[in-house]
């Protein structure tokens, strides 16, 4: 009711950059993160890129006294890297793996092997039901020629749909994670417009930290400086987003980011700066609307822009499917020609002609390898085409509904 005391909630979000055997000074940084979390005593901790379950176990053992409840989301080949630590009981969990997540043959990027996902934990604090989402979307790598933009837009759309369809029984929705998108990017505008989520940085009464709230900054010793040359201040790609669904209001009183090295150390916690938000939740006299709000005309433009980019990705995937299918057919024809040539050579043995076994064997192995690889890639791009077609169709239907409401 009106006048009810406010609930204060402190949230910590960090992309930990904790890849076993690869990340620099990983174990030391995991220990520093654990020490800081014990010292600060946040209510909720949302972590990404904890791909080593041993690191999660170490953190759980270290934080058990402060955060008695936790959950690790398993997905993909090496894991989603997502985990949550909470001071409050976790009532339920759910994991949704995105349908598109890069390409398995792009080994230098490796996003496909992570099984990028969104994890949901449901907690109840002082009678208020919270749906807490943690996610990590596909990285950008090259802003000028972003080959992964259609996949990341599919992920943003699926994330928005997942939140909308799973949060109807919640009082408050919280989303934290590395979204790998700038605040003005179409994916962020699509996610926020479709869900009604508010950006803690934009809404915060007080802010302290890196300029413009940037979370990937040039002066971090672990970042690749050349990738940030167009952005001298850095970029903001890590977020805490929130909204109230029922008869509650949520306000961000304070937002902070870490700045530079860990206290008393010569290294930062990660290649990303952490985001820390203090939210105040209060019950109101009447229920808040859970619809798309009054920004539908603008949302039509956003969905149209996103659908256009997905269409570009769809045409590229169709071209890839065609080229890999053609390669498989050529490899098959090569095998058939080899078989015919081998039969001719065997027939010529009666005339005393030698049979070049080594040459035929090497060429056959090469043709079989190309056939298998091309067939596998053709099937992969066929699935990619279907996922992009499905998302484009969903966006088309959403546009129709939005336009009918105008």
UniProtKB/TrEMBL annotation:
InterPro entries found in the cross-reference section: Endo/exonu/phosph_ase_sf, Endo/exonuclease/phosphatase, Sph/SMPD2-like
Pathway it works in: Lipid metabolism; sphingolipid metabolism; Sphingolipid metabolism
Localisation per UniProt entry: Membrane
Transmembrane spans: 328-352, 358-380
Names of required cofactors: Mg(2+)
Membrane topology: Multi-pass membrane protein
GO BP annotation list: sphingolipid metabolic process
Keyword check for Ribonucleoprotein: no
Tagged with keyword Manganese: no
Catalytic activity annotation: 1-hexadecanoyl-sn-glycero-3-phosphocholine + H2O = 1-hexadecanoyl-sn-glycerol + phosphocholine + H(+); a sphingosylphosphocholine + H2O = a sphingoid base + phosphocholine + H(+); 1-O-hexadecyl-sn-glycero-3-phosphocholine + H2O = 1-O-hexadecyl-sn-glycerol + phosphocholine + H(+); an N-(acyl)-sphingosylphosphocholine + H2O = an N-acyl-sphingoid base + phosphocholine + H(+)
Residue ranges of domain Endonuclease/exonuclease/phosphatase in the record: 15-272
GO molecular function, one term: metal ion binding
Its EC number(s): 3.1.4.12
GO cellular component: membrane
Keywords annotated in UniProt: Hydrolase, Lipid metabolism, Magnesium, Membrane, Metal-binding, Sphingolipid metabolism, Transmembrane, Transmembrane helix
Similarity-based family: Belongs to the neutral sphingomyelinase family.
The protein, known as: Sphingomyelin phosphodiesterase 2
Organism name: Herpetotheres cachinnans (Laughing falcon)
Source species taxonomy: Eukaryota, Metazoa, Chordata, Craniata, Vertebrata
